Amino acid sequence: MLVFCLNPAQGDSRALIQSEAIFPAEPWHNHASCLVETRRGDLLACWFRGSGERKSDDVRIEGARLPQGATQWSKRFVLADTPDYPDCNPCFLIDEHNALWLFHTTILAHTWESALLKYHRTDHWEGREMPKWTHEGVVHLSPGIPFIEAISNAAPGIESSMASSQWNSKTRGEVTDYLTAMKNHATNELYRRLGWMPRAHPMQLGHRILLPLYHDGFSISLMGISDDGGTNWHCSQPLIGGGNIQPSLTRRRDGTLVAWMRDNGPPPHRVMSSESHDLGETWSPVVDTRLPNPGSGVEALVLRDGQWLFIGNDSETGRHTLAVWRSEDEGRTWRFRTSVENDPAGKASFSYPSLIQARDGSLHATYSVAEGNGTSFIRHIHFNDEWLQGHQVPAL
Predict the structure, then answer these.
(1) Cystine design at 15: which of 8, 135, 233, 309 (Cβ 3.0–4.6 Å)?
(2) Ramachandran category for residue 131: left, alpha or beta (phi over 0 → left; psi -120 to 50 → alpha)
(3) Taking phi first (over 0 means left), then psi (-120 to 50 degrees means alpha), and beta for anything else, what does residue 380 get?
């Protein structure tokens, strides 16, 4: 178990930063973690592990627990494993009744477009090192006529915006072909019902659950919405912007929801965003922000004091750096940045972070570490606001 402390802020004994590997580096692919804190103060992490991703039938969802006050994570345990199929992209939710949910996908035909969205839930899990699921099943999503119309209506605007970007004529031709395929796929009932995958934390809004989802085939996002405790689900209006996936949700004091998304589109490569004023049903046009993104997952978090944090790769070209940004105006601007990882390109990559604020006010993050020698692990860092402020620099 790797444990180390980074330098605290000069002259501030309150600054905290600790880091450890949840398990030792190994020549297996470990990726896409998600982190929650229990009422007892334990941490519970999940990720997927296997010899690859969607094309490897040995991929399964694993987890580990860090008991409150402990410095050693538990041994890894299996949270979900569909025999002879890859299980990928897990995320946790602790709902309003303190039930633990695990959402993930099972890949049916070794393509992301064939992902089947599943859930596992347990109501009695706090005293167990490993959750024992009492309910499990499929999250059925049925994007219908409004989805088809949204795809068709958005295509001209996407094509126009991409034509003015930093793409050459050959690439713009490829974009036109992609948009044609996207409209054709939208009319295929099976294609638009499969392929929806989670990544960042779901959000509980009163009795409503918002499950942020994305589709690699369409290269867009939408929200799975349940108003009856996860029994039934319906789809939001899709968030369409020419390559916006893996949304992370925040909420402003006035109720506005903001989705922050990975950029899979043309340069400049920026985090993309959209807003909702009706609890996630409909969304504004997707726009670029000033936050850089190399095509990698992100997460945003609203702190209890009203400040916002954002964690992601602070580069347009690679995953070798990772940073935390701070916003004092609910995500409208991000004035300060603190570096978390900064390696030379090609040495290691740091990606798909998960970020939470604990009950004691401190912060925890987990993320994938892929080393240049082909090994990987999930890193956990524990830090506080004093450390962030002591190391922050002007950002944007």
Answers:
(1) 8
(2) beta
(3) beta
Q: For residue 308, what pLDDT band results from cuts at 50, 70 and 90?
A: very high
Structure tokens at 85: 């199929």
d(CA 22, CA 88): 19
Q: Tens digits of per-residue pLDDT, 163-177?
A: 666 656 656 677 778
Tell how far CA 349 is from the center of its chain. 16
Mean pLDDT value of segment 329-349: 96
- What backbone phi and psi angles, to 5 degrees, belong to 250? -135, 160
Within 13 Å, how many C-alpha atoms sit on residue 97's CB side? 12
pTM attached to this predicted model: 0.95
Map residue 123 onto helix, strand or coil.
coil
Judging by beta carbons within 10 Å of its beta carbon (0-12, 13-18, 19+), is residue 324 exposed, middle or buried?
buried
Mean pLDDT, the chain, rounded, equals 93
pLDDT at residue 396 is higher than 70: no
- Distance from chain centroid for Cα 355: 9
Q: C-alpha angle with apex 350: 248 to 40, nearest 5 degrees?
A: 60
Structure tokens at 51: 């010899």
Query: pLDDT tens, 225-242?
Result: 999 999 999 999 999 987
Instruction: Tell the burial category of 204 from Cβ atoms under 10 Å away from its Cβ (0-12, 13-18, 19+).
Output: middle
